[in-house]
Amino acid sequence: MEGKNRTLEGKLLPLVEDFFTIQGEGYHMGTPAYFIRIGGCDVGCSWCDSKFSLNPDIHPLVETDAIVDKVLSSGAGTVVVTGGEPLMWNLDYLCKSLRNNNIKTFIETSGAYELSGYWDWICLSPKKNHPPVDYICGKAHELKVIIENLEDFTWAEEYRLKVNNRCKLYLQPEWSRFNGIIHEIVEYVKINQYWSISIQAHKYMRIP
Questions:
Q1: Distances from the Cα of 88 to the Cα of 2, 52, 55, 98, angstroms
Q2: Which CATH class is domain 2-205?
Q3: What is the pLDDT of residue 183?
């Protein structure tokens, strides 16, 4: 029971992996950050490139304080919390601990669950199988929509209209469809110039 309560409080998290690297996507591409990948996701993207993180039961519950200690020892000034779908868990304690040590907190989320934590940057990547809770759209600093086929442009425009007017807008080709879809994305952005293109640069750099 104690372990369950500590999980609900966010003092234990199902850690998949954590590492210091260079951000490979979106607005902060090319900048250093410490990534914390949390297990668990039921959004169900067929093209997910982190399927190893989907089942939280196969990843050990780790003391959040121990995760924070590793961040501090790395020298990183920014943490990116990702998954899986990290908002399946209470992230208040993690964020509070990081911010108390002057670490910036970023999150990458589908927005499918209620927002917890305190964030300097919210990257919202909405998914059709499990759409975001609407209020998170107004809080997003960055909208990153994965483009697998032409119908995804309509989905992207739907969410462009839901985010605030300061939100950075990105279309990102689904990795396995890159060669088949990048031309369409380029032409779309040339016409719809409020969008920019994001690519998964870390895969070209061969880093995590």
A1: 19, 16, 12, 19
A2: alpha beta
A3: 98
